[in-house]
Every structure is written in C-alpha cells, then in structure tokens.
Amino acid sequence: MPKQGSSNSAEFKLSITKALRDQLGASLEGLTPSPLTPDEIEKIERHPGVYQLYHRDAFVYVGKADSLRSRLSQHRETIRGRLNISPDEMTFTCLYVDEDLPTIAPERLLIDWHKGRGEIPWNTSGIGNHDPGVKRDSTTWGPDHFYTLYPIDLSWPVADLTPEETPLSTLISQAKKQLPYTFRFKKASAVYSASTAKLGKTTVTADEIFALTAASLPPGWQITALPGYVTMYDKISEAPGALRIYRSPHSPTP
C-alpha cells in the first residue's frame, strides 16, 4: 500500500461492474419511451437485452429477456388481464445487450442502482412472469403491492371452447393457455378426466369457468382467485385476502 501523501504512486481500483452499470443506465436514460402497443413491440428484435417499463411516465420496472419482443408482449398481456390499469398507460425503452453480458447480470446491476434511487416499485412486486409459488398463496400483500393495486380480471374471456359436455381436463387446459395470469392446479389428477362440465357457449369468462369447474369437482376441492393469480387444489382453506373462492356445493366449510 502506498503511504499517505506519496506523490509518485497511488492505488487504483478498477470496477468493471460499476462501469457497466453506469453505461447501461446512461444508455437507457438517453432513449425515448414508446407506447406498449403491438405495433411498437413488433418493431423490437427478438434479441436479448434489458428493458424499462413506465406507468403514466413513472419509471416502475427494469428487467432482462432472451427475446425482448416476446417479453414485452408478455408484459402487455399481463397488464391487459388486470383491473385498474391499461396498456395504454404504459411505455417502454429497451437496449440490446451482447450475448456474453448476461454472465455478469446487467439486470441485477440496474435493479440495485435504481432501487438505491427509490425507483422501480414494481420489481419484486408481481409484474414478472414467474409463478410466486405455493409458499406465497397465504401471503397478505401490502396496499402498494402490484397485486393489490391491480388485481386479476375475473371477467377475462376464454374463447374457442366446446359448448357441449367436455372433460374438466380439456376445460382447465384451455383456461390456463388463454388467461393472462397464472392458473396453478394439482397436476395429473384423474379427477379432471373423470369429471365433466357443460358450458352451453363457446366463450365464457374466467369467473364462469372457475364456477363451473368447482361445481363439477368432488367435495373437498377449492379454486381460489387471489389478487395475483388463481389456484386449484383438493384442500379447503379460508384464503384470507382472496377475491373469490369457488367450491363444490357439497364441500365442507373450513
């Protein structure tokens, strides 16, 4: 170590991560946000990179993706499936990143930087595309959480269904594919193939599907519409904070 006051030597520390973070942040801040519309998203290449989301001009989220176009489309669908918010209120910027850079986590660098500045309230707050997992099913979300502010839309239409009597396995599979939020249920249950439901029409709401499905399930099953997503298991619970609970008419109360 050089002595204090030495004029012919000094200590130099090179921070590659800080330099990258600063350059990424500066490059993104220099971009003009575009509306989160299908036409604008279509202009984006299917290349890896980082992106930023803005809600009513407020910077709310930063993320990364292997395909920027696909991830931005997913975010648009997520927002379309929520109440109290519209994709028309959203804008975005994005930055293509060389394929070798994800090894040093540019997204993590940006998250740490912006959180330190009091920005990106939606990060770690439910806007992402991952299922939060069964351990979060009993969580009571705070008043400022994304799920609380923008709960799922149970009036979302599910189309191209068979109006005649159909196995629940087919019905819940179609619902899972079309709903813009997570619908998690117990896998490979023989109950789904053994039980049927009759819709009477080709397009129904998520609420109607869940109500019909619950009515067709044996006692002891429950569909729980939480503010952020929907679950279906052979277990009855109170589920505090749920938007709605669907059960067979013969199911016991918890």
Question: What is the strand and helix layout of this fold?
Answer:
Elements lengths: L15 H14 L4 E2 L2 H5 L6 E7 L2 E8 L2 H13 L9 E7 L9 H11 L29 H4 L7 E2 L6 E3 H11 L4 E3 L4 H5 L1 E3 L5 E2 H11 L5 E4 L4 E4 L10 E4 L7
Parallel strand pairs: 7-11
Antiparallel strand pairs: 1-4, 2-3, 2-4, 5-9, 6-8, 10-11, 10-12
Helix pairs in contact: 1-4, 6-8
Describe it for me?
- This protein is an alpha+beta fold and 254 residues long.
- It has helices spanning 16-29, 38-42, 68-80, 106-116, 146-149, 168-178, 190-194, 206-216, and strands at residues 34-35, 49-55, 58-65, 90-96, 157-158, 165-167, 183-185, 196-198, 204-205, 222-225, 230-233, 244-247.
- The strands form four sheets. A four-stranded antiparallel sheet has the order 1-4-2-3. A four-stranded mixed sheet has the order 7-11-10-12. It has a two-stranded antiparallel ribbon with strand order 5-9.
- α1 (16-29) packs across α4 (106-116) and α6 (168-178) runs antiparallel to α8 (206-216).
The structure class reads alpha+beta
The total beta strand count reads 12
Q: Determine Rg (CA atoms, Å).
A: 23 Å
DSSP summary: helix tally: 8
Sheet bearing the most strands, described? 4 strands, antiparallel
Estimate percent helicity.
25-40%
> What letter string, H or E per element, gives the SSE order?
HEHEEHEHHEEHEHEEHEEE
Distance between the termini: 68 Å
Q: Mean pLDDT, rounded to whole units?
A: 87
Strand content bin: 15-25%
Overall, the morphology is: elongated
Low-confidence runs of at least 5 consecutive residues: none
Identify the strand order in the major beta sheet.
1-4-2-3
